[in-house]
């Protein structure tokens, strides 16, 4: 039954290439951000994305390399002239390997940490069909604008389902997470994910990626012993993310680290343009480090001028050294 439930999702989810194929024609670089235009790459059309060997781990988890560029656009329906995006999310449990010696029992959405990156366009109607198979009560609380009855703070017991339906607004980078108490524990176990609401007029084409920073408290001392981008500590340090020189990269970055008040995000040998909470179409600043409190999220855009390998990580080195470390491998063009 659970398989049937998930099967519909697999069949209906568009992968990024399909979406680009449909959406890329006719898009152009807008005049937005004139002051920053000189920082923009000149070769951003068409979008070039290196082939990635996404080796799925044998433990049944989804590779962070897959999570990186995976966007769930839902099942698209039209009802009364409106676009409905229907998403299916199942809460369940799985074990993730934090290093060769430490296994961690996660509570998660759709068998992955972070959960699926749900994506809609402002004005769409979002319908999330949530099924709790996690053994504990859980819920889905979305950031964004919606009525109280779909705010997702009511616990849904194991074996039960709920439907969260609301308009996709406002455009920006948002998130969802379980809001069942103790919330710190439910989030710390892995029950969170990103919700992207695109503006009505799409952003310029780019190599788009999701990076969710999170921590793991493995000994229940209310401190994190491990940290990770997209679930697996040090994954992108050991498997650098290939990108092309001069290609515009758009990072959707979310800080889901509990216990630490804030984390920074630092990019080596470059500057990024900041779209705070993804709420603007023009950047508000450019920097090579940005501070994010828990659940803060931004769009960061950049292109690399020179080929080579470049780190990205929080500049609190204790966090970086405990798993929140990655590398971009910039391929010469
Ligand atoms: Cu929960």
UniProtKB/TrEMBL annotation:
GO terms for molecular function: copper ion binding; nitrite reductase (NO-forming) activity. Keywords: Copper, Metal-binding, Oxidoreductase, Repeat. Coiled coil: none annotated. Its EC number is 1.7.2.1. Cu cation 2 binds at residue 138. Residues 94-201, 210-330 form the Plastocyanin-like domain. It catalyses: nitric oxide + Fe(III)-[cytochrome c] + H2O = Fe(II)-[cytochrome c] + nitrite + 2 H(+). It is an enzyme of class 1 (oxidoreductase). Its cofactor is Cu(2+); Cu(+). Cu cation 1 binds at residues 143, 177-178, 186. It comes from the Bacteria. It holds the Pfam family Cu-oxidase_2. The keyword ATP-binding does not apply. Belongs to the multicopper oxidase family. Homotrimer. This is Copper-containing nitrite reductase. It comes from Aliterella atlantica CENA595.
